[in-house]
Design goal:
Largest sheet: 5 strands, parallel
GO molecular function, one term: catalytic activity
Organism: Flagellimonas hymeniacidonis
CATH superfamily of the largest domain: HUPs
Number of domains: 3
Radius of gyration: 23 Å
Number of helices: 14
Distance between the termini: 32 Å
Protein name: Phosphoadenosine phosphosulfate reductase family protein
CATH architecture of the largest domain: 3-Layer(aba) Sandwich
Strand order of the largest sheet: 3-2-1-4-5
CATH topology of the largest domain: Rossmann fold
InterPro entries: PAPS_reduct_dom, Rossmann-like_a/b/a_fold, Sulfate_adenylyltrnsfr_sub2
Shape: globular
Order of helices and strands: EHEHEHHEEHHHHHHEEHHHH
Number of strands: 7
Helix content: 40-55%
Length: 379
């Protein structure tokens, strides 16, 4: 029986790097393959992180590239930017993700049964990239629930209630099994017009069964996956089934520092002062230095900390066609002294307001943007 491949993409972000270290150290029996999709427009700190990780693992991180780029002597971004005739990527048209991340990734997988590991943390309430290809299964080791929503929709479908109960009867009996019956019996709709309600119920059912026992839930889902042909069905057992770790933001930085790999410098806060008030800014994500998901304060950070790269980003804009990185504002307009002052003042207000809120993780306004954007790029 062929075993599935276990792969992990290194985006240059803290979460994917920490996940790679965590899995490498905790599950050496799994033969992990690491890859990196280089856009050619990363910060130098990203490439340094890749080098540090390769030294730590003692094995290479495979650089993925599309065939049409070979022999062009162009960076991936510049090649596709020209093919789109100067049309910048945006939240509504993410050709950068489709062509520079997903396309080389799915070619790398090459139709083989594959388990892809995603670094979404336990303090984040979002779903990561889930491939539409049946041969690719996503796993989220940092969360209490390691399974992706696609398999949970099948697991909690009333049509599979009898099968799921049979699986749980191997672990529970009496009152505990009765509780499972109650949870599975809760009404649920799969009407497309009620997607939000369906998601809410799935989340409630998942948390309820997890409260009864994480390893038991994992083993029930693992056995269930064998009936529907997921890649993990090819494994006789799976070491993550007994894992009850839940890792949050502070854990990520600790893993990076304790391992010696280090935290990319662009995450380190830099102090600024405006009208006698002091604030801090940094970059909240990995990815291209001109990423359109950046907040305006991050553009100011880029201008003041990496002026040369900011000027490079300006060259891609075409104001006559309204092709700008920031909606309704060119980078030339954004760096005017009065505009920079306004952006910093607004950032200070939002930061102070956010810090005043009750939060178990005390994330400030900039760090909160980690939840925004493209899951494929920023993990």
């Amino acid at each position: 029986m062929n075993r599935p491949r276990h792969i992990l993409g290194i985006s240059g972000g803290k979460d994917s790097a920490a996940l790679a270290i965590y899995l490498n150290d905790k599950y050496p029996e799994l033969d992990f393959e690491y890859y990196f999709c280089d856009t050619g427009k990363e910060l130098d700190e990203t490439y340094q992180l890749i080098d540090n990780l390769q030294s730590y693992f003692g094995k290479p991180i495979k650089k993925l590239e599309n065939e049409e780029l070979k022999g062009t002597n162009e960076t991936p971004f510049d090649f596709y930017f020209k093919s789109f005739r100067g049309y910048l990527p945006s939240p509504q048209a993410r050709w950068c993700t489709a062509l520079m991340k997903l396309k080389p990734f799915e070619k790398f997988v090459n139709g083989e049964p594959t388990v892809s590991y995603v670094g979404i943390r336990g303090d984040e309430d979002r779903e990561g990239y889930i491939s539409r290809e049946s041969n690719i299964q996503s796993i989220f080791p940092f969360r209490r629930n390691i399974w992706s929503s696609d398999i949970l929709y099948k697991f909690f479908n009333p049509e599979n209630k009898s099968l799921v109960l049979d699986l749980y009867s191997s672990f529970y009996h009496g009152k505990r099994l009765d509780k499972i019956i109650d949870i599975l019996s809760l009404p649920i709709t799969f009407d497309r017009n009620q997607r939000v309600e369906t998601e809410r119920i799935i989340k409630h059912k998942t948390n309820s069964v997890l409260d009864l026992g994480i390893p038991e839930f994992n083993r029930a889902v693992f056995q269930f996956s064998k009936t529907i042909g997921y890649p993990l069905a090819l494994e006789d057992d799976y070491p993550l089934l007994d894992n009850e770790d839940v890792l949050v933001r502070d854990d990520i930085f600790k893993i990076l520092r304790d391992s010696g790999v280090g935290v990319p410098a662009y995450y380190e806060k830099v102090q600024y002062e405006i009208d006698g008030q002091k604030g801090e800014y940094a970059r909240s994500r990995s990815g291209c230095y001109f990423c359109f998901f950046q907040q305006k304060i991050e553009w100011v950070w880029l201008y003041e900390q990496h002026t040369d790269l900011f000027k490079e980003a300006m060259k891609y804009e075409n104001t006559e066609e309204s092709f700008t990185w920031v909606p309704n504002e060119s980078l030339e307009e954004l760096i005017q002294p009065e505009r920079i002052k306004e952006i910093k003042q607004n950032h200070l207000k939002r930061s102070n307001k956010e810090k005043a809120k009750s939060s178990p993780y005390l994330l400030d306004i900039l760090e909160g943007t980690e939840r925004d954007g493209c899951n494929t790029c920023f993990l």
